[in-house]
Amino acid sequence: MNLHIVALFKFNENYLMDAVELFQNLVKETRKEEGCLQYDLIEDKDNKGTFFLIELWESVEHHSRHLGQDHLLNFRKDASKMMESATEVYKGFKIY
Asked: Which pTM does this prediction carry?
């Protein structure tokens, strides 16, 4: 069963260019992973510094493997210094 994920990030406005650079590398590398069906970065149109990652994984197992990838671990380490608040992550399965 496919796993759908929405992750919400709020970055300090002083770091927007750095954040986009970090996201670009994360998205590029994650899309190469086995089981990654969708991995898109969206910037909130009304709230500067607020980004969403829209993810679709072939399975929970594929996503679990993603969590140990160097590009994700490096992103988390680097991004944490620039964020206003903790990342919010919502995971679920399509019901209709």
From this structure: 0.94
